Amino acid sequence: MSASALLTDTQHASTSEPVTPPDQRERFYGLLPELIASDPRAVALLADIGAGYVDVPPGLADRVINVGIREQLLVSAAGGLALAGMRPVVHTFAPFLVERPYEQLKLDLGHQGVGALLVSAGGSYDMAGAGETHFGPRDVPLLDTLEGWTVHVPGHADEAEAQLRAALPGEDRVYVRLSGASNARPYGSGPSMTVLRRGGRGTVVAVGPLADRTLAAVEGLDVTVLYAPTVRPFDAATLRATLSEPDVVLVEPYLAGTSVRPVAEALHDVRHRVLGLGVGVAELRRYGSPDDHDAAHGLDVAGIRRSVTRFLS
Amino acid sequence: MRSPTGYADLAGLMTRMTGDEKHEPAATSTLDVLWVLYDRILRVDPRHPDDPDRDRFLVSKGHGPMALYAVLVARGFLDDHLLDRFAGYDSTLGHHPDRTLVPGVEISSGSLGHGLGLAVGTASGLRLQGRDARTVVLVGDAELDEGSNFEAIQYAGRAGLSGLSAVVVDNGSASHGWPGGIAGRFAAEGWAAVDADGRDHDDLERAFRTAHPDRPLAVVAHVEPKGSPR
């Protein structure tokens, strides 16, 4: 990640000019000391990533633990802290938080019967120039193999903040997936989906930071658009309550098809069709910018419109 | 105060658990360490297994838990009739222990290399809460092959986690060995590290009572090599 991304000015006054939405990760770093201070059980666990950006007051220093570049320990220690009654807030880039210590998530949280608040950064390819080693499109599908995870995919820093504040006091397993991409404004912080538009020819579920471009992509199409800032548990009730034609398109910023199964479960008694858009499983072996990767995976406005139109025609 | 059931009864309790012969060497290698910990060191009370001020004993090396179950019976955490259904479908006692099923078991283990990291977290949490409870984690010499242990050993040493103790039961079962010994590896990372005879109860007690006010303690408990007769 680049330092410049974190230094983006987020304090623009609201004007008619399009403004850069506040950066989710920057919001998290700014909020973290307050979260820790607000709950005596809260402990932040870092593995170097973010340690230089969190401004820790001296009185809280012992509850912000940087274990160094040790991601297995990062998650195991979270499990141990939870066993001692603490509430760990665990942060690093998505592949190092979910893929490298996957067995620690499974055993040192799940199998111990304890929880933690995991906060990832980097999304699927925020650091496009960094390449495959720093890409994280497999985080949500991997968490789907484990029991009891709530998965938030905020589309705006305000949503992320609300989700973090709500998750801190609990004891459950929560994953907040921060992205470098954001919508221009918040649409809701879950856990229910927000109805952005109603239409008669099918439903498009836009997840997190893909909402604005999905709305642009379906302009003029007679579809319902639902906004999902929380994908696990999947909000089957809103999908069913707003269903017109049982044709459903998922627009997800991680591995394509990840939420096809919960949609199928939600509509188990309805003959339906579902299309899962998202990041392809094949390695592109490309660098560039996130926009380049969005276009390559069909997650830009043109790509989403092309896929939705073809599916509904 | 002595427990209602003594060390001499452990062997009989262990024979009631059958069907896990594969792990038998692992089970017996830990027996004396477990007994000394529960009989002389740990502040745990079967009447209050969830006391927040209790010492925590984490068996990282979950293989061969018969010795653990036998000691938990002897110390009053478990009813002895549970042993007879060992690893049955309706048994709470498996070939690897599950903390959510067995009172007195602090972690669910079996996959090697998880307990030290968990213990680092628990010891850190107890320190943050201002409790002087001890966190003791048992690992095996072969288990140290897992690299995750070294993340925990390094960090615990740098953090001066004095509430943490590791006991490494060394029965020489690591495929490639530990040239120069195991204690030196902990010492290099800033631990107090002592060797002990893993069958000598007084020597083990001495090792566990080693003063380590500003750093974690490693006790390397040497027992006869795996596969050799006792």
Outline the structure in words:
- The complex is a heterodimer of chains A (313) and B (230).
- Chain A has 313 residues and is an alpha/beta fold.
- Chain A contains twelve helices and twelve strands.
- Chain A has a seven-stranded mixed sheet, sandwiched between helices.
- In chain A, helix 8 packs across helix 12.
- Chain A starts with a helix and ends with a helix.
- Residues 1-15 of chain A have low confidence and may be disordered.
- With 230 residues, chain B is an alpha/beta fold.
- Chain B has one domain (7-222): Rossmann fold (3-Layer(aba) Sandwich).
- Helices cover 31% and strands 13% of the residues of chain B.
- Chain B is built from eight helices and five strands.
- Chain B has helices spanning 10-15, 24-29, 31-41, 66-74, 115-128, 148-159, 183-188, 201-208; strands at 56-59, 135-140, 164-170, 192-197, 217-222.
- A five-stranded parallel sheet of chain B has the order 1-2-3-5-4, with helices on both faces.
- In chain B, helix 3 runs parallel beside helix 4 (66-74).
- The two termini of chain B are 29 Å apart.
- The mean pLDDT of chain B is 93.
- Chains A and B meet through helix 3 and helix 5 of A and helix 5 and helix 6 of B.
